[in-house]
# Entry
Amino acid sequence: MYPWGAMPEEHHYVPRFYLKGFTENKKLWVYERHQKPRESKPKDEASRPDFYSLDADETGERNDAPEKQLARIESIAAPIIRKLVTPHYVLTPEKAAELIFFIALTFVRTPAWREHLNRVAVKAKRDHDIKLAQNKEPFYEMLREMDTQKKITEADYEKLRQMFLSGDYELEQKSAGFNLWAMFTSGMQVAEIIAEFQYQAHYAPQGMEFFTSDNPVYTVGPDDEGSMVVGTGFGRPDVRVYFPLNKHACFYMRRGIRTMAILTTSTFVDQANYLTMLTATKNLYTSKCLRRTMLLFNQNGCKVKAGENAFMAEPSPPDWRQS
# Structure
């Protein structure tokens, strides 16, 4: 039983309306590496219990204000994305801004990004503890002030200091409040950066489709040596942002391009789908069950992970933008 005395609600970290854009006859095919593709529906995918609920308040009630805010943002973006199924729909600057804000929130609302920010927070706390423990007398004085009942000896103070210095202890970030604060804060920062980008809607040639995943927004750009890498920071020069809108279209953003709708090449579709596979956390979503897709995902899927080989240089949230 949950603290607020009710069953948990399923919160979708990839919106249901969005996944519907990758279905055929209401069927969504889900790929997981080294597993057979399975038939599913958008309502049954990409969700976790109470993922956007705050801890119970003093009344013991569930606080789902963050989920309601995300739902409001989705309700604004959904009709825009549905209309972008065709290249004849022209985005106004106002609608483009609404879509770009949705894309920024889509990037930061996934479990993969939450886990990354939790690791960043834990590292920052551990580094802070080590810095405190390096100065013996101030560290002792801090413990004396905390130990109001005088139950800890000076020898224990030193044991604690050595433990901090060694880093030989477990830390875990479990605050829902921090999770949601970090999500919205980093989302606002991403939105602020990509609002300055130009954009294009690339439409797949007949007979081809775009894929999406449980981590549907990804970046590509040059590192300090000029090599192109997947998962570079949004603030980097010449970063490119991809977001599959539906099975027919992919939103592409970067500085200095001409804003337009493009009937794109098969090469662009193949590249976008390859990158979608690389950056998936666990699942790839498509409208068809194809053996070739399964084999490619087994080979290339889930290789880019924030904090491991992407978005590496963030100090602590929220100042992580220039990875």
The two ends are 40 Å apart (CA to CA). The first helix runs from residue 16 to 20. The CA atoms of residues 126 and 167 lie 7 Å apart.
